[in-house]
Every structure is written in structure tokens, then in C-alpha cells.
Amino acid sequence: MSNYSIKTISENYKMTAFGVILEDFNDWAGNAAKTAAKKAEITENGKLADLLALADGQEYQINYVIDGKGWRGFGVMGEFDAEGAVVLDFLAGDYIVVPGTGADKDSLADEITGKVFGGMIQEITDYKYVGPGNSVFVTAADDGECYGEMWLRATKVEN
Questions:
Q1: Of the candidates 102, 96, 84, 76, which has an alpha carbon nearest to the alpha carbon of residue 155?
Q2: Which of 35, 63, 124, 128 is buried most deeply by CB count within 10 Å?
């Protein structure tokens, strides 16, 4: 069983992000390409840097469901007015928190996401992921090692 913990968030919170609609959840290669193109766009045009400057500087990769479709983007904790960005609601409650470490900051968020949705989520039997979204953050330590966490809203399964 993979390593995870349960943390409780006492109040609803918001995240502001730029992202793309994913038409087909199972088109992994296409979704990765669309996501990478959006990340490159908002990095090159400075929109992501501007958003990070409004918040605490911590970037999140966010997966969410909007109008019944998958959505993936990049953003910050909090509600900010940024042209082209969406504000997403995250609800108070229990969250499954899955940590990860690695050497590459850019790929660690995808590695953690892949681990969770590649089978780990089915192994967790005492809590069930309920969404509507999840987020991953990654930070780099002074020694070059990177640390990240994925947070997924969940409910306790009553036996």
C-alpha cells in the first residue's frame, strides 16, 4: 500500500487557475500535450508569473470537473481577478494527501498524479475520492530534492 494520510480542511477555499478542457479522460497523450501547451503559453506570456505574484508564489497543478468535462490547469491558492483565469471552489472536509519526492520539479506533479490514478486510489478502502477536483504542489529543497503532495477531497467509507 502506498503512503498517504488524511487531513481535514475546516473551511471552503478557492483556487484561481488557467487551464484547458479535456474532451476525453482516457486520451492520456493528447491531454498531456494540451496541458503542456497551456503551461508553455501562460509561462511565455507572463500570466502565470503575474498570478503567482498575486498569491503566495506556490504553483499548483489542478484537476477539476467543469460542466461534466475534465479540466486541467495551473494556478494558485486563493481568489484573484486575472484575465482568462477561472476561480474554482474546493470544499471543506477530509482530504487524502499523497506525498512524493523526486529530482525533477516539472515532472513530479505528473508522477504523483499518475501514481494516484494509476491504481493507488483503488487501494484506499477507508476513504472514497469525491472531488470535484484535486490539486498537486511541488517545492524544491536547497539540496535539489523536490517534494510534492496531491490533495483529493474524500469521504469516509462506512462499513
A1: 96
A2: 63
Task: Count CA within 13 A, CB hemisphere, residue 105.
Answer: 13
For position 2, what pLDDT does the model report? 67
pLDDT tens per residue across span 92-137: 999 999 999 998 887 899 899 989 988 999 999 999 999 899 999 9
Which CA distances in Å does 67 have to 22, 24, 71? 11, 14, 10
Pairing state between β 86-90 and 13-22 = antiparallel
Helix 28-44 × helix 47-54 angle, to 10°: 80
103: Cβ contacts below 8 Å, ≥ 6 apart: 144, 145, 146
CA distance 141 to 10: 29
H or E stretch including 35? helix 28-44
Give per-residue pLDDT as tens, 47-83: 999 999 999 999 999 999 998 899 999 999 999 999 9
| Distance of alpha carbon 40 from the chain centroid | 17
